[in-house]
Amino acid sequence: MTTLGEVFSDRESANWLKAWIAIDIARTGIRIFVNEEIQNLQTRILQKVRKKLNLQTDAVCAVCCTSNLLKCPTQGLCRRKWIQNCNTMHNTPEKQPRPCPMQICDDIKDEIVGEHRHGRPSWKNTSAERWANNHWEIAKCFMPPDGYDKITSIDDTDFNGILSILLNCKMFESKFSFGITPPNTSQQCLLNQARDVCRHVRHLTTYKVTDVKLQEIFTTLTSLLSDSTYLAQQTDAQAAVHELTQLQNDTLMISLAEKVRHLQEALRHVNHVTEESVNELNSCKDQCKLELEECTQRCMKLLKETSEKADQSNYDQALADLKERLVNHYKKTVAHVPVNPLMPAHVKPLTDIYVKPKLHKLEREIDNTQRKVEICSYKDVFYKGKTFATQIFLQGEAGTGKTTFAAKLVLDWCNTSPSIIDVYPNVETLREFVCVFHLRLTDLQDERKVLKMIKNHIINMIYEEEELNDAYSLLRTILKKEKCLVIEDGMDEWSDKMGQVAYPVMINCQHQWTVFITTRPWKLTDERIRNVDIDLLLELNGVVNPYLLSHKILGFFENNLLYIENQEFKRYIRNNKLDEVILSPMLLALCVCLWKDNTYKIGSSCDIYATMLDSLFKKVHNNVDYFETPPFRCFLNTKYIKLHIEDVNALSRAAFYLLFAREKENSLVFSDRELLNYISNEQTLFALKAGILSERKTSSLTHTYSFIHKSVQEFFAAYFIAGNISVINYQILPEYLIRYPNPYADLSQVFKFVCGMNTDAGYELSCLIDRHCPLPAPRLLQDIVVAGYKEAQTNMVVDCGLRLSHFNFVDQEETVDGALARIFMRNIHNVRSLSAFCYISPEIVDIISDAFHLSAEILTHLTIYVDVDVEDCQTLDLSSCHNLESISITGNVFLVPSKQYVLQTLKYLNLHCFCECLDLSNCHSLETLSLGEHVTLMPDRLCELTKLKKITIHCNCDFVDLSVCSKLEAVEIKGTITVILNAPCCFRHLKHIALTCSVDNLDLTSCRNLETVFLRGNVTLCQTALLGLDDLQRISLLCNCDGIVLSSCRNLQYIVIVGDVSILPNQFQELTYLKHLMLCCNSDMLDLSYCRRLEAVFIKGNVTLFPNSFTGCSNLQRIKLLCNCSKLDLSSCVNLETIYISGKVNVLPNSMHNLNKLKKLKLVCDCERLDLIDCYCLETVDIRGDVTLLPNAIDALTNLKRIKLMCKCDGLDLSSCSKLEAIFIKGEVSLLPHALVNLHHLRRLSLNCKSDGLALPSCYSLRTIYLDGEVTLERGTVLDLLELKNLTLRCRCDMLDLARCPNLETLDVSGKVNLVAGSIVNQQHLKYLSLRCNCDELIFPLLGSMKTSLIRGKTNHQ
Has keyword Nucleotide-binding (predicted)? Predict the structure, then answer.
């Protein structure tokens, strides 16, 4: 045995060999420690991953390699050459990136990344396929990336590799007494110092080490191996320290063989260093090449991004410039409106005159009626649900303010009118539109595409000629990218020259645009406008406060008594009954201006328009000439019309023929050629100067004309009709009434003017309209005639005779007294249809009875709804009305029954009144029958009604025989009635049947077209009653049936079976279209696995479910089971949102797997080891009964808001359920101490379970706490609960301090609780106090609000 000094004669060379041996000794001393810790790390990672994935304890993946787990490219490992495939790591199909089939490898990889101090493991070293079998493959992830890929264990690993593991694996942070610092810091840790020592010795080229350096090596290695935390207690480490001391003192005795081995090892490292240098040079070369390519790619990407940013910057600048130009354009074109319709050139700022409009949204109800919803904000105008509507229509009659509202939208978007922004909130909704394009369709008759309209009439107006190409390009870009608003004002004044569309064409790429269209209502009746084309329908009916508008208009005149003048104007309107006139803002403005000018005022529409025309004529000449015999009374006091009466006659003729032209779209805007067919050039010039006509130039340089307002044109047309009564029955008006489906709205204003001018013409026109009126007549027709009658009365006509055959009374006043009542009395011989929805007094009954008698031969439709008490019932007799086709009587009224009723034409009968001994045997044409509970039907009186299609009977009758009613389509019978339906004939037309009566042995097999069946009450259904009903979609059986057969009803979608009904086995195998199922009957081994379209299931009662009944039911959303089932599995019902299971049901543990849409869960059943980890959308959980919940079953439920547990669970942790608001836990449940950490939203907490050291940190929203049972509350856990109001403790708590819970109202503490002295001294809101606990020196607060207090136990109180 010799010393090392004998090997080399040179001391520093001997020091070099000593340094190598010292490093080898240190490696030997630390290897066992590192090897064991890495084994522990491998075990911990595998256990965590398997538990997370709910796999077996020995589950492994044998198909993934490292390249499968890494994306391509991965920096430093692999690269793509431009767009080609990876040529390094992922160079074969088997090595392409993909998820692990079992997810094990992906999760292990994530755990390794999490353990790496820098998050960049050396994937080049490791083989993922051996992670589960060789722990050192995981260790290699923490070593340097080069030189360690071939090693398989710690025995092959040098000291540098081991030190890299200690430095890079975060697990070793707690294994040393010092902190592990990054390299190259001012104070390096011992691990970094040891690695520097090792690197210094490895890279020496002179093979010599000085004494000073050798001493530093010994000091560093000895200090590392002597660390106090772990290595100081390691036997191998301390043996290595002893050997290092001997080596340092040159007393370590080494055999010759060992000397040779150490020397060879040192020389091998020297050679390895040389080879390593070459390898490092090549590696550096490859790395530089790789980095150069990556740099090139980054530069190309950066260049592309820079170019895109530059393009975006240019686009943003151009867009901002366009918006600025649009704002300036709209300031000039729409920011001002005329105050006086007689002087359209005299305008004022819209901001100074605008008043909130009376605007509603029209929503269609289920019964096809329209419901009006008030518009309260811009969001209501533009939003449909939660998204922008694509196409919005605003309808309103002439002069109601549609154009002004459209201008307001534009100005609010421009934000140039802050004074009107407060008219509607949510003005930011308009800001969401990048651009707004305002188009006046009256000016665009020759164009049909919106984009072209915008180009020609907006873009061309705001850009210079040399800028247009760029502007067009910008517009196309905006078209594809941005959300814009297009306002098309006046659709009723525009028509497609090709006759193909009802409104301008929008191309498909403009899907982000919202189109806002204003129109008069008649335009929306166009068949080319489908319901699906209208996202939102708005209706404008003037302004909310007309007198606010009059106040603003009067403000433009110089006066100091504005309020007084407005009050005088109100009195003028009311005295002359012009309230309906001022609903139109245009006519209101006209009335204000004429009243202010002291113009002659009379309270009729004819007078107003005649006065308006007189004022317009004044603009052409000032010569005054009154009529001695005016053509009509409304012209009596005009001054300037007489001299131009020929012009008036010509204009009226033109207005009439143009208004009722064959093409309705051309009736308001017409060409000069069309106009010249009726008036001369001189008359046209006069009308233009007077402002009666307006002339516009179109883009094609042609001229179009229109009256200044449609109502003006209607007034002239009425003038022509009133003076030429013969034209009423001539070809034009009759054809107009036939040509259009609903022409009455467009005739309303004309008819009103005609009645005001000439009552004879009004009568003839009313006769024409009445003759062409369809049945049932629209209510609008009556409103038109009443309005004409009132206009005639206002023009001093005492008794105006107008024809009306269709009456609809809705209130008593108009029935007894008023215009409608007088019209009714004038036409009592001509009543064809009569509807009354009002209080029926004896006087009204007499009037109606007279109508029955006097109009008996022509009365065809009768509808009466009586709103009176039973004691005030009146009697109606219809025996004289032989031609009635429709009867509907509802309410407390007696109908006189008569066997002599001869109603051969009656098709519709609805009686929900009082009637006895009703005999319908003579009503051979009856198709629809509905009888209420107060009607007594004579038996066997339907046997001759062979045309009956629909029958609804809720009345009294011994029996009803429907056996001859072979055309029946719908049957509904309810009451103590015996029904005979099993006829020898086939009910092949019957689609709907609902019986709540008495039917014995009902058989529906002949009803082959049945779609809906509802049976209830004393109905007995034969077993094969539904056999062969292929079209049957819905059944609801609450009757009696033993063994119902459903298998042939293949199209069933809804089933409800309740009561004494039993279902034969295997009846659901063919019901593949079934969506909704409700069973509360008898069924054994029910199998629903074939019903793959099921959406909702409710099963209760004596029903036994097949275990796999819901396999494959992926559409199922709601399920409620209160029946019998063993081993229920719902895991394939991936769309389930609600589950409620109770009764004798056993649920499989994995039944809730894959239910990631489940929101509500209630279980009161049997289940072992229930796992909810996949149900991360759960919001409500209620689990009771014999259910055992896995401890981590609720870990991932981050959306959970309410939980109620009365089951079994050991080690429950709710800390990850951060949205919890309410917790109720009782029974065999144990909570972890920190189970309620970070529950910031928790408001209610009730625990009667087991929890040791329960803490409530961060539960600052708690308002109610109830703790009972084996709960031990951690000291100080109730601090800072500022919202806590109710606290009940029947648990354990040491040193309970409530001083920082100032809002307590109820305090109930008992049991093993120690209350801190002075804890409640500041409780000023306390109302109830009960203390049965321990407390020293309890100090009461001054509680004026306390109602109850109870103090017991060991307390010293003051």
Answer: yes
Chain centre to alpha carbon of residue 617: 57
- Phi, psi (deg, nearest 5) at residue 14: -65, -35
Query: Between residues 576 and 136, which one has the greater pLDDT?
Result: 136
What tokens does 140 get?
Answer: 């290699």
How far is 490 from 399, CA to CA, in rounded Å?
12
The predicted-structure confidence for 1042-1072, as pLDDT tens digits, reads as follows 888 888 899 999 999 998 898 888 888 888 8
**Inter-residue contact 873 to 854 (CB < 8 Å):** no
Angstrom CA distances, 346 to 341, 816, 1240, stand at: 9, 48, 64
Q: How far apart are CA 102 and CA 58, in angstroms?
A: 13
- Non-local CB neighbours of 194 within 8 Å, separated by 6+ positions: 26, 159, 163, 220, 221, 224
Overall average pLDDT of the 379-395 stretch: 88
- Distance CA(948)–CA(963), nearest Å, equals 11
What is the 8-class DSSP label of residue 229?
T
Asked if 1039 and 1058 touch (Cβ cutoff 8 Å), the reply is no
Structure-token match 């398989």, residue found = 152
**Tokens coding 302:** 């950066």
- At 967, give phi and psi (nearest 5°): -95, 10
Alpha-carbon dihedral sign for residues 1149, 1151, 1153, 1155: negative
The DSSP H or E segment spanning 470 is helix 468-481
The answer to whether residue 349 scores a pLDDT higher than 80 is yes
Are 961 and 942 spatial neighbours (Cβ–Cβ below 8 Å)? yes
| Unique residue bearing structure tokens 């054994």 | 1084
Cα 1024–Cα 1028–Cα 1033 angle in degrees, nearest 5: 100
What is the CB neighbour count within 10 angstroms for residue 655? Answer: 25
In order, the DSSP letters of 983-1017 are -SS--TT--EEEEEEEEEEE--TT-TT--EEEEEE
pTM here is: 0.54
Query: What CA–CA distance (Å, rounded) separates 1064 from 1091?
Result: 16
At residue 293 the predicted structure's pLDDT band, cuts being 50, 70 and 90, is low
Buried b (16+ CB within 10 A) or exposed e, 397-406: bbbbbbbbbb
Give the C-alpha separation, 1309 to 924, whole Å.
Answer: 83
Q: What angle do CA 553, 556, 562 make, to 5 degrees?
A: 75
- Please give the Cα distance from 691 to 689 (Å, whole number): 5
Residue 1012 contacts by C-beta under 8 Å, 6 or more apart in sequence?
991, 992, 993, 994, 1032, 1033, 1034, 1035
CB 753 within 8 A of CB 533: no
Q: What is the DSSP letter of 459?
A: I
| Cβ-contact 401, 585 below 8 angstroms | yes
Contacts of 796 (CB under 8 A, 6+ apart): 633
Pair 38, 135: CB distance under 8 Å: yes
Q: How far apart are CA 201 and CA 214, in angstroms?
A: 10
